Amino acid sequence: MRRRLRWDADDEQKPPPHPYRDTALVYAGFAVVIVVVAMLTGGGFIRALVFAGLFWAAATAYGVVSWRRRLRERERRGVR
Prior knowledge:
Elements: H1 19-40, H2 45-77
Helix pairs in contact: 1-2
């Protein structure tokens, strides 16, 4: 039996309890990976921290804006 992916199933699932915090934590984990990879490949620690910080700030800002848009859209449609 095959299962088909349904990309339009957003309305059926409730958003997580803390979407903004979860987004920031996931991107913080990715930032740590950036620093670790830089250290393993011989890159500069300070430079890696700067790039990881910039990545975290940009990605988290995008994630927050995206969550706000989705949550407002759900409210507008009356979906809980």
